[in-house]
Amino acid sequence: MQSPANGPDRPSDGNLSRYGWTADLAAAFSPYRDTGLIPARIVRVDRGRCDTVTGHGAVRAGTSALHAPEPLLAPCTGDWAALRPGPEPELAALLPRSSAIVRSSASRSSHGQALAANIDTVVVTVSLAIPLDAGRLERLMALAWDSGARPVVALTKADLAANADAVRAEAGLLAPGAEIVTTSGADGQGVDVLTALLSGTTVLIGPSGAGKSTLANALLGEDLLATGEVRERDGKGRHTTVRRELLPLPGGGVLIDTPGLRGIGLHDAADGLEQVFGEIEELARDCRFGDCAHDSEPGCAVQAAILAGELPRRRLDSYRKLQRENAWAASRNDARKRAERVDRQKAITRHQRAIYRFRGPRP
């Protein structure tokens, strides 16, 4: 009798290629084949269940078997999984992630939260309809660079902008190393340029009202995602996207739209910060002291650059603020892990004492 994994009903993995299935993923999945599991990609997660796409098509599956104390390890949109088919499909395991956008959990705890997994391109959306928030862009770029994917900045709502060129120039200084594209989902401006930069799995991130869903619809070629109005005074909008969702793009690859990010806490994003503030890192190498705090130390190359007008003081202030936040999150995470180790050791000790009392003293 043939096993389900090798029998005539085995789904064709080739049907998953448009969702990013590769030979490397097939190799990672090979240990699960002989157990009757099938590969699936998570399209959407909500209320302990998820929508997936498999070689047979869409499958609604449970996730209770993958319960983890760390929110960072919970299934999220973009994950590849081993799915147990049947009357009540269930995810049995997640394949290792190649990349992920991770922020501190919305509760401001020491846990991290994965917003999207296995991504290749991160599009950071910035509305041209309101003044540029430099600190927010730097924060989003730190998340994007730290994900392991390639960041692109999409300046949206160009049809409503009077100073698009000036904002583009400023964004280039705040997001070094990233492509900057001026777009308008309303009239299609720049959408073809942005499309040419996308590859594999793309995720859109940004605040509410930045035009993510409108831009996503332009990339998808049809109005699949709801859009909403924004307040004129601050450009903020309601969350028309309420959950992360993965959709195939007409020219290949897939797109993940995300809800607007009110809180963008950093979680172990040191590498991302180094990339975003690369000019400060470069200047710091020329400081007289290796542990220079770039404050009032003699021979500080960073302060010299500020005095010479080569580096805005706001840029250094933002760098310090995000470094402090990242260090705080890291220390909270370390403290929580230490507490968990202590709790586990106490539980083991209590168990051993209980066994000793049950057995009684040795004769």
TrEMBL record:
Membrane-spanning parts: none
Family stated for the protein in its record: Belongs to the TRAFAC class YlqF/YawG GTPase family. RsgA subfamily.
UniProt entry tagged with the keyword Lipoprotein: no
Amino-acid positions noted as binding Zn(2+) in the UniProt annotation, renumbered to this chain: 287, 292, 294, 300
Cofactor binding comment, as recorded: Binds 1 zinc ion per subunit.
Annotated CP-type G domain residues: 109-264
Gene3D superfamilies: P-loop containing nucleotide triphosphate hydrolases, Probable gtpase engc, domain 3
Name of the protein this chain belongs to: Small ribosomal subunit biogenesis GTPase RsgA
EC number: 3.6.1.-
Sequence ranges assigned to domain EngC GTPase in this UniProt record: 117-262
Family matches, as Pfam families: RsgA_GTPase
Top-level EC class: hydrolase
Cofactor: Zn(2+)
Keyword Lipid biosynthesis: no
UniProt main location, coarse: cytoplasm
Function of the protein: One of several proteins that assist in the late maturation steps of the functional core of the 30S ribosomal subunit. Helps release RbfA from mature subunits. May play a role in the assembly of ribosomal proteins into the subunit. Circularly permuted GTPase that catalyzes slow GTP hydrolysis, GTPase activity is stimulated by the 30S ribosomal subunit.
Keywords attached to this entry: Cytoplasm, GTP-binding, Hydrolase, Metal-binding, Nucleotide-binding, Ribosome biogenesis, RNA-binding, rRNA-binding, Zinc
Location in or out of the cell: Cytoplasm
Binding site for GTP: 156-159, 206-214
Lineage: Bacteria, Bacillati, Actinomycetota, Actinomycetes, Streptosporangiales
Assembly: Monomer. Associates with 30S ribosomal subunit, binds 16S rRNA.
